[in-house]
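User: Sorry, what's this?
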Amino acid sequence: MKVPLGITTLHLSRKSALLLLLAVGLLGFGGYDYVQQSRAVNDAVAVQATITDARVDRLDGGRGIDYEPEIHYTYRYQGETYTSEQVFPSTGIRTYSDRSKAESIVESYEPGTTRAYVSPADPDDAFLIRERTPFPLRAIAVGGVLSVIGVLAGLGAENPGQQELRPASERQPAPRKSWVARHGATIHRLSKQLLGICFAGFWLSMVVLVFGLLNTSSGFGGAPQGIQAELLGPVGLPLIAAFCFWVGMILSLCLYSIWSFTEYQQLRQRLPASKPPSPFRHPSRLVTILGTEDGSLSGYGKRVRLTGWALLIAAGMTTALAYLLYTAG
């Protein structure tokens, strides 16, 4: 599918078109929710509310266990009585993976009188905490990243990574091998073995962690303070082991990427005289190759695809680890 875009044209595959549709949906919903929350926060007026019930609800979903502060209250505005259970000025609910954060909100709204906020344009939807939730900005950020990926895929060449290679004997003169190239077989073997060991060790640590949580007196739904107190116990040790194995997987992927990039450089020397631009210097070509199936790529394209995915997975795992450490701190 061809889509005109200014002075150029996007060549979109079915995957790229679906990705752009998802990106537009996230950008639209995130932008709408951000505007709605901003308007509610800026235009809200304070009213007196009566808390009738306040508790923490446990939600078991596909991503794991989340906790929602559920607060029921009544309030009067311009002579009318309303009921609400909305805590933030958002179209959706806000949940927490840490029970203590949800409990801290509920503890601030024990049954009794408190202050709520009402938008004059929509008095049915009051809220208790006058601040925006982070969801709209997260949706906009994810939609922005997906839109960039989709546009780069559309700007790339239609059939990159399909160039046939010349025989290795035709390389004249023979290039001087780097240290990585000379020890490539060893580096490749060690990176794969380390990745396998760390992958198995990480999931084994997760299993031990589950049994450790089940054996605590409070279990999954108990107070997190009691679990944190035994950092070197049946919960803390599996967490430390899982952290180490996770870092080991990142290092093994980086090691594999170094070896794979060296292989890519050697294969690139076997391309015909009219070499295409390097995918690692032209993101649009790299994104297109990453989304192409192996059966449609030459040996050169397959090496680019493996190298790119290894780097992306290592970067994603590093980002996830940094985010977890930041939230834990």
